[in-house]
Design goal:
The complex is a heterodimer of chains A (379) and B (382). Chain A is an alpha/beta fold and 379 residues long. Chain A contains 13 helices and five strands. Classes of the chains: A alpha/beta (379), B mainly alpha (382). Chains A and B meet through α1, α7 and α8 of A and α5, α14 and α16 of B.
Chain lengths: 379, 382
């Protein structure tokens, strides 16, 4: 039987039911105090972290590949870039530079050719347009009154799967950025509790910071470690809180450059099952991203493509061109400045949509020569 | 009739496969080629818990200790009260049914204290049990690959993992109940501070041990009919308690070890020498070591695994342990808290700022360091 000396439930008047075998209980007033203390500590932790953690946005900076899902850091990067008055180049891994070093990306060549350091690489790996809208909506609030070059990768329309139209669930990038409740995304099948958790995370910046700390300090792909517990197991005698300050900076370019894919050569042709532009989920959200950026007072310039047309079969190429025309028509009708690059030569592609370094240089040259970008700045 | 009915359900779902498997082994060992098909049955979740709750209710009604419940819905709520459905505590009709008959108003104090219990349980489960589980699973998954130090540490870790896991679940269940205005019985009372095996069973899984005491041990005669009958009753009770945890010989042996330990120490524990001369810390340490040794059979996948672990423990070898210092620190903090709680310095823990700081620490730790993907509760298997 429970011993007599353990805490009795006071409501029972010292009666039958034992509350607990410890003193861990708070009354209503104490909980209010505890939540107050928590709120202060949470504020202080975020405040201290920003000041302790080195975050230098140097020349050709891009978010560390490993931190592609660190939206708290993206927000911090946005704040930094916008405070410097830079123009932003937003997009997926094509903008980030999947197959190239950071000194060979689109933003690098735009800076080089324009003769000033004014373009910031805001590319995020796997950022499909639905996710891009979420990223801009929830984490890109600082982007206002800026020049924004936004890239649209036609690869996202190359199948109903990439367009998130299939009912069958599949694992796509950035599920935390897609709409959680309404409108429904057909391919997204997360449970209600996960969706609610994501909504809460979006609205509590502290939770984004927690994710950031876990990614920066504890995740280690090589060891298959994804969280704090894994880190502790991998470093049983290590100090989990050591060198927090320097870790972010050391991550920024810790990734080998991917090799060019064989299929980029165009020897084998593909019949890609393009989706209808009118029914495309990705295109719908890209348009919303453009509208959102314009509502926030940004000057928006859209770059559509490039896409490795050399790998497409004839019929597929025709569908692709129709889609491209449809996109251009909408952009023109809505007076969105845009540039649709001329097809690059086969050797300028690393795969279906990513250029190699020379491809980026050529693309940057075309964009600047086109003149619309300069016009959009009102120069 | 009702008890037989309940036990038949439990026997069919939980022990059907175990019985057939053992009958087949016996038949095969005597050279008979007959083999019964092993039933492929899913075990309904929480079966052992609500069957025992039902049997307890029937026995209490039979003894006249509880008024028969004529409202079917209320009875169904008593048996399937959701916070305690899956892993207990095995509530008594006297307590829960009485509250269901006269539900009180939910006060702010109920909500605040229920939430306190829930947070403590969540911390035990996610921050302590699930962390230790990673280490234990690694070592116990391949016991032949590790040396003495790793096996010893994994065994100690499992003892604490099981405590944090099960008592954490219980705290959360009790907290939920409290937030709804119901007071559910205590199930764990700092068991690793027990200074005797009898004391341990008064502190560990109290709802189960007291159930066996009230509905099996005492009806068998308890300790009133001489030493032999007392020991027999202890063995029957502990073996069945072991079997209650699962249909495997490892659980039966685990129960047998506890029965043996209880019989061997029963007289010693009641002696004035043990009570007065042996330092309390030595008694606590001895009980902890004994209980931890017995957990090997509780955790091992099979008897052969258990023998590999025991032989490994005594084979020596210190390499490959890699037991995180953080785990040592966390376990030590919990032990220290419980030690102070049961000492004359207990008032230190009653200070408001100590309690508030503890909760703030637990919530911050859970939010920052605990992954959202956790292990399932160990006692869901039973």
């Amino acid at each position: 039987m429970p011993r007599d000396d353990i805490t009795r439930d006071k409501n029972e008047g010292g009666g039958a039911i034992v509350f607990s075998s410890n003193e861990m209980r708070l009354n209503f007033r104490e909980w209010l105090i505890a939540f107050g203390v928590l709120a202060v500590l949470i504020y202080l932790l975020g405040f201290i972290r920003v000041r302790v953690e080195e975050f230098e946005v140097g020349k050709d900076y891009r978010l560390a590949y490993k931190l592609s899902e660190d939206y708290w850091l993206f927000k911090r990067y946005c704040e930094s870039v916008c405070a410097e008055g830079k123009s932003l180049v937003i997009g997926d891994s094509v903008v980030w530079g999947q197959y190239v070093e950071k000194g060979q990306t689109l933003s690098h060549y735009l800076n080089e050719l324009s003769g000033e350091q004014r373009f910031a690489n805001m590319g995020v790996d796997g950022l499909h347009p639905v996710a891009m809208f979420g990223l801009l909506k929830y984490y890109g609030g600082d982007i206002s009154g800026r020049d924004v070059l936004i890239h649209f990768n036609l690869l996202w329309l190359s199948s109903s799967k990439y367009d998130l139209q299939t009912e069958k669930e599949f694992s796509f990038n950035h599920p935390k950025l897609v709409p959680q409740l309404v409108p429904e995304i057909a391919s997204y099948k997360a449970g209600l509790s996960s969706r609610i958790g994501i909504i809460v995370e979006r609205n509590l910046p502290f939770l984004g910071w927690v994710k950031h700390v876990n990614l920066v300090c504890f995740a280690d792909e090589e060891r298959g470690v994804t969280d704090f517990c894994g880190w502790v197991m991998a470093h049983p005698y290590g100090n989990p809180f050591g060198d927090i300050a320097g870790k972010l900076q050391s991550l920024s370019e810790n990734r080998p450059v991917r090799k060019r894919e064989e299929r980029a050569r165009g020897e084998r042709k593909y019949d890609l099952p393009w989706v209808d532009l009118e029914r495309s989920v990705q295109w719908r959200y890209f348009k919303r991203s453009v509208e959102l950026l314009r509502q926030r007072g940004n000057r928006v310039f859209v770059v559509v493509g490039p896409f490795n047309e050399h790998i497409l079969e004839e019929e597929s190429l025709e569908r692709y061109n129709e889609i491209k025309v449809g996109i251009e028509n909408w952009l023109v009708e809505n007076r969105v400045d845009c540039y649709i690059p001329l097809p690059l030569a086969e050797g300028y592609y690393a795969d279906a949509s990513h250029p190699v370094g020379e491809g980026y240089a050529l693309l940057a040259e075309q964009i600047l020569e086109d003149g619309l970008w300069s016009d959009s700045e009102g120069n | 009739m009702s008890v037989v009915n309940s036990l038949a359900l439990l026997g069919f779902f939980k022990y059907g496969g175990f019985v057939v498997e053992n009958v087949n082994q016996v038949l095969s060992s005597v050279g008979m080629s007959i083999r019964f098909a092993e039933p492929d049955i899913f075990l309904p979740v929480g079966l052992s818990f609500y069957i025992f709750k039902s049997i307890g209710y029937v026995a209490d009604c039979y003894r006249g200790e509880v008024e028969r419940e004529r409202n079917f819905i209320r009875h169904a709520v008593f048996v399937s009260f959701f916070p305690i459905l899956l892993a207990g505590p095995i509530e008594r009709a006297k307590n829960l049914l009485g509250q269901l008959r006269q539900p009180g108003r939910i006060s702010a104090q109920d909500a605040a204290e229920g939430f306190s219990l829930f947070v403590v349980g969540l911390f035990k489960k996610l921050a302590l049990a699930d962390m230790l589980a990673v280490y234990v699973s690694k070592i116990y998954g391949e016991p032949g690959e590790y040396q003495s130090a790793a096996l010893v540490l994994a065994t100690f870790a499992f003892g604490w993992q099981l405590y944090f896991d099960f008592s954490g679940y219980t705290d959360m269940a009790r907290g939920l109940g409290r937030m709804m205005g119901f007071r559910i019985m205590l199930n764990f009372n700092n068991p690793y501070l027990a200074d005797g095996l009898g004391d341990f069973w008064n502190r560990w899984h109290i709802s189960l041990s007291s159930w066996f005491r009230d509905y099996l041990y005492i009806p068998l005669g308890g300790n009133r009919r001489g030493r032999f009958n007392t020991y027999r009753n202890v063995f029957i009770t502990m073996l069945l308690m072991g079997l209650w945890h699962g249909a495997a010989w490892t659980f039966v042996i685990w129960g047998g070890i506890h029965a043996l330990g209880r019989c061997l120490t029963r007289d010693l524990e009641s002696s004035s020498f043990y009570k007065e001369k042996v330092p309390k810390f030595v008694k606590q340490l001895s009980v902890f070591l004994f209980v931890t040794f017995a957990w090997i059979f509780f955790r091992a996948e099979s008897l052969s695994d258990a023998s590999v672990i025991i032989s490994g423990i005594f084979s020596g070898g210190l390499t490959g342990a890699g037991f995180p210092l953080l785990f040592v620190a966390m376990i030590f903090l919990v032990w220290l808290y419980q030690f102070i709680y049961e000492s004359r310095f207990r008032r230190l823990l009653e200070f408001s700022f100590v309690r508030i700081f503890s909760f703030v620490f637990m919530i911050l730790y859970l939010v920052i360091f605990v992954s959202s993907v956790g292990e399932s509760f160990i006692y869901f298997e039973f």
